[in-house]
Amino acid sequence: MRSQLVWTLVLAAAARLAAADSPFLVGVLESMPRADAGESKRPRVRVVFRHAAAGWEAFPYDCPTVECLTSLPAKYPPRVTWTVSLAGLTLGTITARTPADFGAYASIGLQTIVGRGVVPTVGKPAIEYAGFLDEPRYRPLLTTYGRRRPLRSSAGWKEGVPDPDDLNRVWPIFRQRIPRIDNCELATDTGEAGVAARPVWRTPKKWELEIPLAWVARNGDALLKVIVREEIFKECDGPRTLPSQLWLLRRSNGQIRTLPDQLEVDRAELAVPLEFDDMLRDGHDEMLFMIAGYNRGGYVLYYDGFRKFVKYMWQYR
């Protein structure tokens, strides 16, 4: 009996070590609003990040040729049973498998859900989650595999109202990081020789800014979306070429900094935060952000006090 107990304890310890060494996977459950002819519109899971001994990293997504759509799936887990959650609350489990061929650039990382059980959804389809396709989608939901389910952030992040003085605080940083915006007041052709055309850009003005969205933590920290108001670009013809928004983290002590890697993302912007969670259950929060832009979609995971990040992106065509 004693030897059996010892053996049971040894097996349990080995299982815990194996679980600790195995990667922690992060995916996103996505609704499929606009399927091609003959393609299923059933939701799918996009495999995006993993955490292993080396830390956080993104699954490979760079696919410059059609041939890599066939070779890339081998670098993804073949089959995963995911836990679907929102703000630390488990919504269900689903099993999904990686196809032999992703088939299209927009399908990179997408797994097909196995079985015909109920797939969790939250709320109604909304344009907020549409991205480039410009068609309402259900809120993308966090899926995880390995260890235990993530814990809801202890900071108590929730959508709130910015401080009235926040615009004054963020203006110097916005002006420094975005010194130029698109100029929609294009010059007319007068036919006069030597008359220079107006530049297609100009400097922004403080009164043109607004903070349409804010997420506020229990301790007074705030995540602020600062934009040039849309009406400023009402005369623009075609897509804009210069950045016109920043997400900033304003600490309760007044310190302000931008979230990293915003202006370096090609033709894409941070759209909306999806999760504030302690994903690794280590007392430190991660933040999952949806990004979207012209012919672009993706996610960014911020960690280490939201100072570091990993990014996953795809194009639609």
Tell me what the structure shows.
The chain has 317 residues and is mainly beta. The chain has a domain at 1-149. The protein has helices at residues 2-21, 68-71, 166-177, and strands at residues 24-30, 44-52, 55-58, 79-86, 89-97, 110-113, 141-145, 151-152, 158-159, 181-182, 201-202, 209-216, 222-228, 245-250, 256-258, 268-278, 286-293, 296-303, 308-315. The strands form four sheets. Strands 1-2-6-5-4-7 form a six-stranded antiparallel barrel. A five-stranded antiparallel β-sheet has the order 8-16-17-18-19, with no helix packed on it. Strands 9-12-13-14-15 form a five-stranded antiparallel β-sheet, covered by helices on one side. Strand 4 (79-86) and strand 5 form a beta hairpin. The chain is globular, with a radius of gyration of 23 Å. Mean pLDDT is 85; it is low at 1-20 and 187-191.
Task: Characterize the main sheet.
Answer: 6 strands, antiparallel, barrel
Evaluate the radius of gyration. 23 Å
Shape: globular
Structure classification: mainly beta
Helix content: 10-25%
Portion of residues in beta strands equals 35-45%
Strand order of the largest sheet: 1-2-6-5-4-7
In short:
With 317 residues, this protein is mainly β. It has a domain of 149 residues.
What are the defining features of this structure?
317 residues; mainly beta; 5-stranded antiparallel β-sheet; 3 helices; 11% helix; globular; disordered N terminus
